[in-house]
Amino acid sequence: MIKLDRITKDFVVGTDSIQILKELSLEIGDQEYVSILGPSGSGKSTLMYILGMLDTPSSGRYIINDKDTSTLSDDEISRLRNVFIGFVFQQFNLINKLSVLENILLPSIYYSGELPYNVKDKAWELMRRFGIDHRATSYPNKISGGEQQRVSIARALILDPQLILADEPTGNLDSKNGEIILDLIDELHSKDKKTVIIVTHEAEVAARTNRQIVIKDGYVVSGKEKSKLLKKK
Ligand SMILES: Nc1ncnc2c1ncn2[C@@H]1O[C@H](COP(=O)(O)OP(=O)(O)OP(=O)(O)O)[C@@H](O)[C@H]1O
Ligand SMILES: [Mg+2]
Asked: Of 179, 183, 178, nearest to 196 (Cα)?
């Protein structure tokens, strides 16, 4: 489903250029449940930004469903990002001026095509599923962190994307709320059949996934092989 082919990422700081990702290659199959681990500063978030098409690699190719993303126009990238990927960030990234319901509906505002369902019904279904329907008209800064993260997961799912990217989704939560969020993310894989990629520092979180990709010094040092269960297909 997605393939990174010798991706590099350089950042220019002052007069220096530093290479954060060094010819990193990786394949992730449809419906895989994968974690990305590595020391702080190793480039995990940089990699997630590239996977999410929020940033472009300095060199190398990023292929989604056999399509080289470098051949797409900005419009095509935006559209693909909107329908193909759901994001869950450590800092929730909700808009405080919008209600919970409006935040969840936000990706659909930028979507011009026909959906096979009514988005409002879908938003309510997701809120009920995640136990936040009583918060529909509340504002994000008036609800708990655990609830905010459930809102952001609902927002990630509103256009029914194939790929979920979660960058330390429990980093700002206490362990009880973290557990709730991790159980929900497990379900996105097991029940919703999404491809899920989660960045984490914690071994227990990584242990929930079927494959642990470890990056260090800009390279994948382990977890390059696709999950065995899926390889047979
Ligand atoms: N826009 C940028 N400009 C310059 N340097 C950057 C930029 N973004 C990231 N970096 C640098 O790239 C390196 C990798 O950053 P990244 O955020 O990907 O690490 P990480 O593995 O996610 O770390 P953490 O576990 O702390 O979240 C860091 O040294 C960071 O300072
Ligand atoms: Mg990071």
From this structure: 183
2-231, what's its fold?
Rossmann fold (3.40.50)
pLDDT in tens, 133-180: 999 999 999 999 999 999 999 999 999 999 999 999 999 999 999 999
Quick one: which ligand is closest to 58's CA?
1
Q: Tell how far the Cα of 224 is from the centroid of ligand 1, in angstroms.
A: 22
The pLDDT confidence band at residue 233, using thresholds 50, 70 and 90, is very low
CA distances from 66 to 62, 63, 121 (A): 9, 6, 33
Integer Cα distance of 127 and 104 in angstroms = 9
What are the structure tokens assigned to 114, written together? Answer: 């026909």
The reply to whether the predicted model has a pTM over 0.85 is yes
3-state secondary structure of 13: strand
Q: Would you kindly state where each structural domain of the chain is located, as residue ranges?
A: 2-231
**Is 94 strand, coil or helix?**
coil
> 149 CB under 6 A from ligand 1?
no
Q: Please give the number of the atom of ligand 1 that sits closest to the Cα of 43.
A: 18
What's the pLDDT at 194?
Answer: 97
